[in-house]
Design brief:
The complex is a heterodimer of chains A (about 120) and B (about 120). Chain A is built from no helices and eleven strands. With about 120 residues, chain A is mainly beta. The radius of gyration of chain A is 14 Å and the shape is globular. In chain A, about 35% of the residues are buried. In chain B, strands 2, 4, 5, 9, 10 and 11 form a six-stranded mixed β-sheet that branches. In chain B, strands 1-3-8-7-6 form a five-stranded antiparallel β-sheet, with no helix packed on it. Chain B is mainly beta and about 120 residues long. The chains are: A mainly beta (about 120), B mainly beta (about 120). The interface of A and B includes residues 31 and 101 of A.
């Protein structure tokens, strides 16, 4: 199984709502990532979890709150978002074996629209 | 500053024709270089991955090359199909240490449109 799944596929929320994005992988990968991607732009790294601990936060606003309940799951909690936060949110994972062949596998993404 | 630059930004080709996409990078220390294919609104899918010791890697009709001396890579698509219409992203990785995961530097992508 070389799949990263994300739910929901689409999400529309108001600026006062609280919602969560979910990501799951069963490849035994020990690193998981959240990226934000605007149209026609490359993905921008938001957070990295390695061994279920937050290892990198790329200065992301606190209205985005990541959570890693276990080694297979990664959540992104959203609260009081702004319209400019509308984007495709991608989850990725990789083995973290330390080898140069280590590849990040991406999920299909959640298309988020903030009204 | 680590950078990855791709050219051209966009490309239109006729079905059945070949094309080559370019990627130049200044990432250091270099770990590996990958080419991803991304359909609109979908997550990137890995096509090839090459370390500094590899010159070429193929995946079906996709062939990637790497020149670590000049820090250039190319992706060649042979006998293009309509389903090849997508963005192709060159991504260079360096390792921040085993506990910190890979740090990926993304190119801006080349949008390929294959016309019948």
């Amino acid at each position: 199984d070389t799949e990263v799944t994300q739910t929901p596929k689409h999400l529309v929320m108001g600026m006062t709502n609280k919602k969560s994005l979910k990501c799951e992988q069963h490849m035994g990968h020990r690193a998981m990532y959240w990226y934000k991607q605007k149209a026609k732009k490359p993905p921008e790294l938001m957070f990295v979890y390695s061994y279920e601990k937050l290892s990198i936060n790329e200065s992301v606003p606190s209205r985005f709150s990541p959570e890693c309940p276990n080694s297979s799951l990664l959540n992104l909690h959203l609260h009081a978002l702004q319209p400019e936060d509308s984007a495709l949110y991608l989850c990725a994972s990789n083995e973290l074996a330390g080898g140069h062949q280590d590849t990040q596998y991406f999920g299909p993404g959640t298309r988020l629209t903030v009204l | 500053k680590n950078q990855v630059e791709q050219s051209p930004q966009s490309l239109i080709i006729l079905e059945g024709k070949n094309c080559t996409l370019q990627c130049n990078y200044t990432v250091s220390p270099f770990s590996n270089l990958r080419w991803y294919k991304q359909d609109t609104g979908r997550g990137p899918v890995s096509l090839t991955i090459m370390t500094f010791s590899e010159n070429t890697k193929s995946n079906g009709r996709y062939t990637a090359t790497l020149d670590a001396d000049t820090k250039q890579s190319s992706l060649h698509i042979t006998a293009s199909q309509l389903s090849d219409s997508a963005s192709y992203i060159c991504v260079v990785s360096f390792q921040r240490g085993k506990a910190a995961g890979n740090k990926l530097t993304f190119g801006g992508g080349t949008r390929v449109l294959v016309k019948p």
